[in-house]
Specification:
Layout (H helix, E strand, L loop, with lengths): L9 E5 L2 E5 L5 H6 L8 E4 L2 H18 L4 E5 L6 H11 L5 H4 L2 E5 L1 E4 L9 H16 L2 E3 L8 H14 L5 E4 L2 E2 L5 E2 L13 E7 L2 H13 L6 H8 L3 E5 L1 H6 L3 E5 L7 H11 L8 H7 L11 E6 L7
Helix pairs in contact: 2-3, 3-5
Length: 312
C-alpha cells in the first residue's frame, strides 16, 4: 500500500529526501504568512536547573488547560536532566495526576534499527524515565524503525500525531552542522524541508552517525558492540518536520552540552544572529540552516548554559 493512500498524506521527494504533508496549502503560501523573531535566551547555572525549568513548563500547561497534555520529547543530552527528574517523580505518587495526563511523542529516529538497540532514543528514554513513568503516562508513541516499509510506518506515525490536539510543548535542541549551520529534530541542511512538511525520511550521513553515537556514549548509554555496529549500518533518519514544530503551542529549546559538542557554540551564534529581513531569501536560508525554523515560531523559550556563549 502506498503511504499516500492511507490518509490525505501527500509525499514529496527532494533528491533522496522524502517529505510527507497533510496541508492543502502550498509551502510558499504558508511561509509567506510567517514572521521571523529574535530569540531571547536564558542562561541557567546547571543542567539540573534546565531540567527543572523544563518540568515547570509542563506543570504550567497542566495548570492552564484541562485534559491531555501533549509533549514531544527531546533525545540526547538536552533533556536528560528532565527525564531523570520525571523518572524519580514517577517512583512516587507526587505527580501522578500530572503524569496520567501526558501523551508523549518522539521527534526522530535512526532506521532501520531494532527498537531495543541502546542507541535508539526509545531505549534511552526507557533507561532514564524508568518503567514507572511509562506505566503512568496516558500514552507513548514513537517511530517504528524495524519494519519492512519505513515510509508506511512514517505515515502511520503522522496519523497518530494528527489524532491528538495541538502539541502543547515541543522540546527541541540545536544540532551542529558544518559552517555554523544547525538542524532541528533531524531536519538536515539541504534536505529540502518545507513549511508544510509534517515528517520526513532522509538519508543518513557519517557525520550524523558520529554525532549520534558520541552523544549517547557521553550521556551514559550502555551500548554493546553489536548495538553500535547496527547503528552504524542505519541508512535513514525519520524525523518530524517544520509543520509539526510550527504548529506546536510552545517550543522549549535546551542546550547543555557545548562542553562535549563545542560546534554548538558557532551554530547557536549563527542561529541567533542570522539576518532574516528579506523574505525572498527565507526558503534558501531555511534549507541551508534548518535551525532557523525556530526563529519563525512565535512562542519559544531558549534555555542554555553559559558555556554555549563562550568563544573558541
Amino acid at each position: 500500500m502506498s503511504a499516500s493512500t492511507i490518509t490525505n498524506i501527500r509525499r514529496r521527494a527532494v533528491g533522496q529526501n522524502l517529505w510527507l504533508s497533510t496541508s492543502p496549502r502550498s509551502a510558499d503560501e504558508v511561509l509567506a504568512q510567517l514572521s521571523p523573531n529574535q530569540i531571547t535566551y536564558e542562561v541557567l547555572e546547571s543542567e539540573e536547573s534546565v531540567g527543572r525549568a523544563m518540568l515547570e513548563e509542563i506543570e504550567a500547561v497542566a495548570r492552564n488547560k484541562n485534559g491531555d497534555i501533549v509533549i514531544v520529547l527531546l533525545g540526547g543530552r538536552g533533556a536528560q536532566a528532565l527525564h531523570r527528574l520525571l523518572g524519580r517523580l514517577a517512583c512516587t505518587n507526587e505527580k501522578d495526576d500530572l503524569l496520567k495526563r501526558l501523551r508523549i511523542f518522539t521527534q526522530d529516529a535512526l532506521a532501520p534499527m531494532r527498537m531495543n538497540n541502546a542507541f535508539s532514543f526509545v531505549r534511552d528514554f526507557e533507561r532514564l524515565l524508568g518503567p514507572d513513568f511509562f506505566a503512568k503516562v496516558k500514552s507513548f508513541s514513537s517511530f517504528e524503525t524495524d519494519g519492512y516499509d519505513l515510509e508506511l510506518d512514517l505515515s502511520k506515525y503522522i496519523e497518530t500525531l494528527e489524532i491528538v490536539d495541538a502539541i502543547d510543548i515541543f522540546f527541541l535542541g540545536l544540532g551542529p552542522e558544518a559552517h555554523g549551520a544547525s538542524h532541528l529534530a533531524y531536519i538536515k541542511p539541504g534536505s529540502g524541508a518545507a513549511a508544510t512538511d509534517v515528517a520526513g525520511m532522509i538519508p543518513i550521513s557519517s557525520s550524523i552517525l558520529e554525532h549520534h553515537i558520541k552523544k549517547f556514549k557521553v550521556g551514559g548509554s550502555a551500548a554493546t558492540e553489536v548495538d553500535e555496529a547496527e547503528c552504524r549500518a542505519a541508512t535513514h533518519i525519520l524525523t518530524l518536520g517544520p509543520a509539526a514544530i510550527l504548529k506546536a503551542k510552545r517550543v522549549v529549546q535546551s542546550i547543555v552540552d557545548a562542553g562535549t559538542a563545542p560546534q554548538k557554540r558557532e551554530s547557536y551564534r549563527r542561529f541567533l544572529k542570522t539576518d532574516l529581513s528579506r523574505n525572498d531569501r527565507w526558503a534558501e536560508q531555511l534549507n541551508e540552516n534548518p535551525g532557523l525554523w525556530l526563529r519563525f515560531h512565535p512562542n519559544v523559550r531558549s534555555l542554555i548554559l553559559s558555556d554555549v556563549l563562550e568563544t573558541a
